[in-house]
Amino acid sequence: MHQTDNFFYHVYEVVKLIPYGRVSTYGAIAAYLGAKSSARMVGWALNAATAMPDIPAHRVVNRKGLLSGKGHFPTPDYMESKLKSEGIEVENNQIKYFAELFWNPSVELL
DNA sequence: GACATGACGATTT
DNA sequence: GAAATCGCCATGT
Question: How far apart are CA A69 and CA A18, in angstroms?
Answer without folding.
Answer: 17
